[in-house]
Structure formats: C-alpha cells, structure tokens
Amino acid sequence: MRLSLDGGGVVPAQRESFAHSGYLVLPGLLPASLQDRLVPEVDRWVDDGLRSRSIAVCLDPGSDGDPPPVMELELPAHGELLVHEPLLRIIADLMGAPFVFHHLHSDRHAPGAPGKPWHHDYEPNDLGNPDLVMVHALHYLGGLDGTVGSLTVVPGSHRRLRGRPAPAHLGTTELSGEVVIDELPPGSTVLINSALLHGRRPAPSPPGTLPRYFVDASYCQTGARWRPVKPYWRHMLATARAIGLGRGQWPELFAEQHFTEYARPA
C-alpha cells in the first residue's frame, strides 16, 4: 500500500493495511537536500572501504569486535536520515508503542548487480514474543526504475515467518502472490515488517544505467530485549546519544536496556 504524505502520518486504514500486508510504500519521503548529501556519503562509505571493514568486524571469527573507524550514523546525513522526523512519526503510528533503533546499513548497487534471494530480517527477542514488531525502512535515494533490480515482497508472509528460516533456496524465483515494486520517485522509502519475505530480483541494466544508492535502517518495538547484529552495538548506541541524535523527541531510541548480549552468528 502507498501512503500519501500530505497529512504527515498514517490513518487507521493504512495502519490496518500495514498490519495485514506487512509493507507500506512512502513515495518521495526524503527531501532532495537530504538525498543530495547522502549520495556522497554512500560513495565514501563504499569507496574508502568503510563498508567492507564494518562487515568484516561482524563476520570475521578472529575479529576482536572493536568498532570500525567510522560508523554509518556518524556520517552527518546518515545520522539525519536515521532520525528523520516524518519517518519516525509514521513508525510510531504503525507500532503504537515506543521503539528502539537496531541497526543501519548503507550500500551502492552497481548496474548489473546480482539479485538477493528471498529472505526476512526479523531478529529474535528474549521473550520469544513474535507479536513485537521490528521494521526495516528501505530508502532508495534515486528511486526505483527497474534497471538495477526490483524489490519483491510477499504480502502477509510476515505473519507466518517470524522465528522461522526464510526459503533462501528459492533464490529470486517468482512466488505466488508476490508484489514487484520497481517504479518509485527519488527519495522514496518502503517500510516493511522485518519478518516479511522479500528479495531483490535482478534486472537488465541498459547502457548508461546509474548505480543505485540504498540505505536501510531498522527499528524495534520495546517490550522485550532484542538480539543485536553488531558486536560494537553498545558503542553505536552511546555514540548516537553523544552526538545528540533524536535528543528529546525519542527517549528510548538509543537505550541499551532493550538488547541482549551480542552472539556472533555461526
């Protein structure tokens, strides 16, 4: 479902649609001035090796877990995006409860990039409560036009998959009931329930196709302790508080008590 941003929030029908389908399209959510500042930050994140170093810290069993020299949220425009007020108001409307920041990722997809298999991104909480909501905000800085893959989702799948593995063995094959999202203006966001089955289907990239600039941020409903995905999560939250992200407006956004200890994935 698409949300008109004229009113600045969601209405009951849109809240019900998100609960039922698991996703909400927010065309043109991000102002052009923010998009223009995010693009060179993504270039720096990728070209200076900061992204690869961040990934290595999380995946390398020999890593000591120390934070990379720079985190995404320390880049000024990325920090601004993380606490973008219209986005946080919509999330608050949809969750109906306080929420906490989970993680932030940033990437640049080259023309001809491979697809990403069907998956979901829901993390467990210490109460094993599948009704607590986790959301991912998928930000497409240049929009979507079907040239560097398309976002595909299976509406309603979030009600079946929480706490269960996603069928990654299916790759990016077409699934019954799927919705393909491939036409969005610049600065658009797709807000999904993190348990929603989704993927990136590859598409031909004709000559002259520009890279896709992509940022995603995740937020969790409070009420249990969530599993962090970065070993330096305490440093990440403390840095966000120190630089004043969300100060005064969202008191739980960077609070440590909403997380368990980090466990490195197998």
Question: What does this protein structure show overall?
Answer:
This protein is α+β, with helices and mostly antiparallel strands and 266 residues long. The chain has a single domain, classed as Jelly Rolls (Sandwich), CATH 2.60.120.620. It is built from 7 helices and 9 strands; from the N terminus they run αβααααββββαββββα. The strands form 2 sheets. It has a 5-stranded antiparallel beta sheet. A 4-stranded antiparallel beta sheet has the order 3-8-5-6, with no helix packed on it. Helix 2 packs across helix 4. The longest helix is centred in the first third of the chain and has 16 residues, at 32-47. The radius of gyration is 18 Å and the shape is globular. The model has no long low-confidence stretch (mean pLDDT 90).
Characteristic terms for this protein:
266 residues; five-stranded antiparallel β-sheet; single chain; 7 helices; 9 strands; alpha+beta; Jelly Rolls; globular; four-stranded antiparallel β-sheet
Q: Would you kindly provide a brief summary of this structure?
A:
With 266 residues, this protein is an alpha+beta fold. Helices cover 26% and strands 20% of the residues. The chain has one domain (5-258): q2cbj1_9rhob like domain (Jelly Rolls, Sandwich), CATH 2.60.120.620.
Radius of gyration: 18 Å
Order of helices and strands: HEHHHHEEEEHEEEEH
Spatial ordering of strands, largest sheet? 1-7-4-9-2
Topology-level CATH name: Jelly Rolls
CATH architecture: Sandwich
Major beta-sheet overview? 5 strands, antiparallel
Strand content: 15-25%
Structural class: alpha+beta
Count of distinct strands: 9
Q: How many angstroms separate the termini?
A: 36 Å
What is the CATH class? Mainly Beta
Task: Report the total helices.
Answer: 7
Compute the average pLDDT. 90
Per the principal axes of the C-alpha atoms, what is the gross shape? globular
Unreliable spans are none
Helix content: 25-40%
CATH H-level superfamily title:
q2cbj1_9rhob like domain
Domains (count): 1
